[in-house]
């Protein structure tokens, strides 16, 4: 099971300290220093995402770290450049039903446009899913456009139900 990094402390969880895998990318939990490694350039490819100040980024990072293993953001760092090439998150929802069952929610998966088509997105998603499974979740769910159904099918997901939204 992955462990989110504490805001300042080094951490020896899965992926941390390990070298890049065969494709030249290391998947590991988000770190504070990732602000300068292109984290927001990545997120902007997902949705309009103006860069945050360092103060705002640190504050949000601390909030998420306080959630422990119930909120994990993974990133893929390219060994050759030290830049981030992918990111994604999984949140653990605590339910009353299903004997206080846990549900993983996959969110904000993105691979840099220059790194797509090499299997990195699938590798990242599978790591996030494994984290949820290790946490005891009985399922992992996500929302996506119909164009992405093929990608998530490759990651092992099946289509289920209908997504609805109410925006403010
Ligand atoms: C829950 C959410 O976060 S939904 C938001 C998802 N993110 C986005 O839409 C942001 C923009 N898009 C991206 O960042 C990327 O294109 C991603 C994350 C969708 C895919 O990342 P990639 O690294 O390119 O995917 P990857 O190379 O791992 O593809 C794995 C398999 O899925 C297939 N695949 C990838 N994208 C698609 C697609 N849009 N439609 C159908 N199949 C796809 C690949 O062909 C590959 O299949 P193969 O093993 O037979 O060759």
UniProtKB/TrEMBL annotation:
Region entry Disordered, spans: 1-20
Keyword list, A-Z: Acyltransferase, Endoplasmic reticulum, Membrane, Transferase
Annotated InterPro entries: Acyl_CoA_acyltransferase, GNAT_dom, GNPNAT1-like
GO CC terms in record: endoplasmic reticulum membrane
Topology versus the membrane: Peripheral membrane protein
GO BP, sorted A to Z: N-acetylglucosamine metabolic process
Subcellular location: Endoplasmic reticulum membrane
Principal EC category: transferase
CDD domains per UniProt: NAT_SF (cd04301)
Residue intervals of the N-acetyltransferase domain: 25-168
MF annotations from Gene Ontology: glucosamine 6-phosphate N-acetyltransferase activity
PANTHER family: GLUCOSAMINE 6-PHOSPHATE N-ACETYLTRANSFERASE, GLUCOSAMINE 6-PHOSPHATE N-ACETYLTRANSFERASE 1
Oligomeric and partner information: Homodimer.
Family: Belongs to the acetyltransferase family. GNA1 subfamily.
Name this protein carries in UniProt: glucosamine-phosphate N-acetyltransferase
């Amino acid at each position: 099971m992955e462990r989110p990094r504490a805001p300042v402390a080094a951490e020896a969880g899965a992926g941390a300290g390990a070298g890049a895998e065969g494709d030249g990318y290391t998947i590991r939990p988000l770190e504070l220093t990732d602000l300068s490694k292109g984290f927001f350039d990545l997120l902007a490819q997902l949705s309009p995402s103006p860069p945050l100040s360092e103060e705002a980024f640190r504050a949000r990072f601390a909030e998420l770290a306080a959630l422990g293993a119930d909120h994990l953001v993974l990133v893929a760092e390219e060994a050759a450049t030290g830049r981030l090439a992918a990111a994604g998150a999984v949140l653990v929802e605590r339910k009353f039903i299903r004997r206080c069952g846990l549900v993983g929610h996959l969110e904000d998966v993105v691979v840099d446009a220059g790194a797509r088509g090499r299997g990195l997105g699938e590798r990242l998603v599978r790591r996030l899913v494994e984290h949820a499974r290790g946490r005891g979740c009985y399922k992992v769910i996500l929302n996506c456009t119909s164009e992405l159904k093929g990608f998530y099918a490759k990651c092992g997901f099946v289509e289920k139900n209908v997504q609805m939204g109410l925006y403010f």
